[in-house]
Amino acid sequence: MLFNSYEFIFIFLPLSFFVYFYLNYKNFTNISKVFLVFSSLFFYSWWNIIYLPIILSSMVFNYILGNSLDRDKRSLLIFGIIVNLLLLGYFKYSDFLIENINYISNNNFDILDLALPLAISFFTFQQISYLIDSYRGETREYNFLNYALFVTFFPQLIAGPIVHHKEMMPQFDKISNRLRNYKNISMGIIIFSIGLFKKIIIADTFSIWANNGFDSATTLTLVEAWGTSISYTFELYFDFSGYSDMAIGIALLFNIKLPINFNSPYKSTSIQEFWRRWHITLSRFLKDYIYIPLGGNRFGEFNTYINLMATFILAGIWHGAGWTFIFWGFIHGLALVIHRAWSRFGFRLWRWLAWFITFNFINIAWVFFRAKEWEDALMVLSGMFGFSGIKIHSILKSKLVFLENYGIEFGTYTTIGLSALDMLWFIFGFIIILVFRNSNEYIDKYVFTYKNAFIYSLMFFVSILSLNKVSEFLYFNF
């Protein structure tokens, strides 16, 4: 079931909300939690019920193990992490591993062709963090019902944010949170509406040009290639931040505050700042459970560089089973190493130049993240650097016709289906990412006015009217 679907918005969500608070109103606290767990499992099973035993067995295993952990049982923690990673690896990386073995050894082992269980990357990381926190004595859950709710709570189940047990579960036990909070309800609806608008109106519009460029084109001229790459850069941001907004908004309806996952990342003036703003809960996980345990920056500059590289190569692997994902992680790690070395020398750039370099690096790196094959990435990049020709839209030909003498063509961008009017969308996208505040800033400063109520209502209804073509969220694939 998708957040951006009629059955979720008009049936599942209202029903879950009213039944949950009715049960709490009748002081059936545990029954309300049971209802929420079963609702979440129904939500999860909507795609394919065959996934259900996987998440249930994973929950039981990690709950039992988590209650057995303490500082003297490091080997048990390692065992638990390995089992979780093996489960993730089997479904996510088996075919990738077999393909590479076949390539290296000239064999022809059969591909398993496994379907990736929905949300396995997210609920695996969330439970690994729980095991580590239990080992450190920072959290412990003796009630399986509470643990099941921690893992399955449907707003954050499919694509995050990745939450800690200690930051979410105490909220369910807070007595005041068992009652309807109309401020939280209004805030939740507003954030959900913003996220829905981001996904339906903005992300899905940019997806048309991104998909045409990456999946259908065989060659791209300069403008078409940049249109393709920037379309995906915007699509990915508005798609995933839209999902996160909707997740945060839905959770707020239930008086649960999930952590912020995005903080205007495309305003960043360095790659380090970008990773402090982009997919914040994943960055936190990478820092707390990979980078710092590897040694962080405690053992000299060279080891710090190695740890950064290792952390981001693993981040690339987590995102997908493919060499393009690994390379994406590698170049982000390399960029962080370069940034750290540059900063140590005390060099500074003008702010606008720092932003320009950072944004374009991120945009180019996303090409490898999106491309299904190396050839697709190279096709887009060769176009971006002018190796596949330069074509200017024909509406400018009368004023720039002299450029034909330099080999520049005039025409339309039919390859990716981009019209002259469509280019206004790119101006619109840049204005939103650079000028507008992000949704969590709106919440902090929100004051009810009829103007605000009209704007958010309009965003919601425009999005609802555009639900004729339902599309999945991009991070469902990771």
Task: Compile the SSE list and pairings.
Layout: H1 6-25, H2 29-45, H3 52-66, H4 74-105, H5 120-135, H6 144-152, H7 154-157, H8 165-173, H9 182-216, H10 222-253, H11 271-277, H12 280-294, H13 301-319, H14 323-344, H15 351-370, H16 374-384, E1 391-393, H17 397-400, E2 409-411, H18 424-434, H19 439-444, H20 450-465
Parallel strand pairs: 1-2
Helix pairs in contact: 1-2, 2-6, 3-4, 3-5, 4-5, 9-10, 9-20, 10-15, 10-16, 12-13, 13-14, 14-15, 15-16
Order of helices and strands: HHHHHHHHHHHHHHHHEHEHHH
Average of per-residue pLDDT values: 91
| Sheet with the most strands: spatial strand order | 1-2
Rounded to the nearest angstrom, the radius of gyration is: 24 Å
H/I helix tally: 20
Q: How much of the sequence is in beta strands?
A: under 5%
Sequence stretches where pLDDT stays below 50 over 5 or more residues: none
Shape: globular
Number of strands: 2
**What characterizes the major β-sheet?**
2 strands, parallel
> Helix coverage percent of residues?
55-70%
Structural class: mainly alpha
Terminal CA distance: 17 Å
Count of the separate structural domains: 2
